[in-house]
């Protein structure tokens, strides 16, 4: 089935695995899909908020929201279909309130197939998805965090809303045991030419994936170049005062080795008077750039103005970040 899903890619110039979650992963994949690359998305399953959280709790399935967004981004389906797939019922729709059609479709197929991977592959064929999409594990995970004040919280939404400085995070399955990724995920990591971490929330979008022991082990031994796309803004309470090298340090510590080879860092300046701080209250301020400290951790810093200003907020520019990443893929020695 995976061979069928990848058939649209011609004369692939590299196998690229993007690990993460949230909007950042979809933004990056949306830019990369225009290049001749064999794309694989590995997606976090620790989300427990909104429609995804409700379906996760009622059906004991992986949260479908990030999976849905990635599939929509990589799909060659018509705009009319994608509009319907992404349609979200309004808050007055009773038991359907705030659910998306796509989330419900993924839930239905997961129940029919009794297997989330089979559901995703089936839907990928229907939607003509250009690439491979895998949840990092086939069951919902609980994100756990211990904070510097020695308190502990379980649940991604609760951790995010706590706005407290995190000391340590880990993930547990439904039995409180150590989770394990499926062979497809591990094989993708071991067979990649380039692995991309980010962009996305450090503690809730990226670390939940690489906290899984066999994923961390695969990252330690993969021959692939590992690229981290550093965040533009810090996250309130979690990464306040973090520099680019601080993000890299946390990633390396979580895996247990200096795995990051290249760090894509933003050199553009965020205008302080542009951001609506009430609307985007989860961010704090711009990440500090410290390329020399990044080099000390064995990684090559590559800088560029990657900012897109919209909706009174700051985001990675999909076109700019994908162009820079493609240049790195084409020229492994790029510095």
Could you describe the 3D structure shown?
This protein has 335 residues and is α/β, with parallel strands linked by helices. It has a single domain (2-330), classed as Rossmann fold (3-Layer(aba) Sandwich). It has 14 helices and 14 strands. It has helices spanning 2-5, 22-32, 50-59, 65-74, 79-85, 101-113, 116-127, 156-162, 183-191, 202-210, 213-221, 244-255, 291-296, 318-330, and strands spanning 15-20, 38-43, 132-135, 142-147, 152-154, 166-172, 194-197, 225-229, 233-235, 262-266, 283-286, 300-304, 307-310, 313-316. It has a seven-stranded parallel β-sheet, with helices on both faces. The protein has a three-stranded antiparallel β-sheet with strand order 5-4-6, covered by helices on one side. The chain has a two-stranded antiparallel sheet with strand order 9-11. Strand 1 (15-20), helix 2 and strand 2 form a beta-alpha-beta unit. Helix 9 packs parallel to helix 11. The radius of gyration is 19 Å and the shape is globular. 46% of the residues are buried. Residues 1-10 have low confidence and may be disordered.
Give a brief outline of the structure.
The protein has 335 residues and is α/β, with parallel strands linked by helices. It has helices at 2-5, 22-32, 50-59, 65-74, 79-85, 101-113, 116-127, 156-162, 183-191, 202-210, 213-221, 244-255, 291-296, 318-330; strands at 15-20, 38-43, 132-135, 142-147, 152-154, 166-172, 194-197, 225-229, 233-235, 262-266, 283-286, 300-304, 307-310, 313-316. Helix 2 packs parallel to helix 4, helix 2 (22-32) crosses helix 14 and helix 9 (183-191) runs parallel beside helix 11 (213-221).
């Amino acid at each position: 089935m995976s061979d069928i899903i990848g058939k649209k890619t011609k004369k692939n110039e590299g196998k690229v695995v993007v690990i993460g979650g949230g909007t950042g992963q979809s933004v990056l994949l949306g830019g990369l899909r225009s290049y001749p690359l064999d794309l694989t998305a590995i997606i976090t399953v620790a989300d427990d908020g909104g429609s995804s959280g409700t379906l996760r709790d009622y059906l004991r399935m992986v949260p479908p929201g990030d999976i849905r967004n990635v599939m929509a981004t990589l799909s060659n389906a018509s705009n009319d279909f994608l509009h319907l797939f992404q349609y979200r019922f309004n808050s007055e729709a009773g038991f359907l309130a705030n659910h998306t059609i796509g989330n419900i479709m993924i839930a239905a197929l997961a129940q029919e197939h009794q297997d989330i991977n089979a559901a995703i592959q089936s839907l990928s064929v229907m939607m003509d998805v250009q690439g491979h999409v895998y949840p990092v594990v086939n069951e919902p995970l609980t994100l756990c965090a211990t904070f510097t004040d020695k308190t502990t919280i379980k649940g991604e939404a609760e951790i995010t809303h706590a706005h407290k400085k995190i000391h340590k995070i880990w993930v547990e399955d439904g039995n409180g045991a150590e989770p394990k990724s499926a062979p497809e995920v591990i094989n993708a990591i071991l067979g990649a030419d380039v692995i991309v971490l980010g962009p996305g929330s450090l503690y809730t979008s990226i670390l939940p994936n690489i906290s899984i022991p066999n994923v961390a082990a695969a990252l330690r031994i993969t021959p692939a170049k590992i690229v981290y796309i550093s965040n533009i803004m810090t996250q309130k309470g979690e990464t306040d005062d973090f520099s680019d090298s601080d993000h890299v340090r946390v990633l390396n510590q979580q895996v247990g080795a200096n795995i990051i080879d290249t760090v894509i860092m933003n050199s553009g300046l965020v205008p302080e008077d542009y951001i609506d701080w009430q609307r985007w209250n989860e961010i704090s301020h711009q990440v500090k750039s410290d390329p020399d400290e990044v080099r000390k951790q064995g990684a090559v810093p590559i800088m560029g103005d990657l900012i897109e200003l919209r909706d009174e907020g700051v985001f990675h520019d999909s076109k700019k970040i994908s162009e820079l990443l493609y240049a790195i893929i084409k020229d492994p020695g790029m510095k």
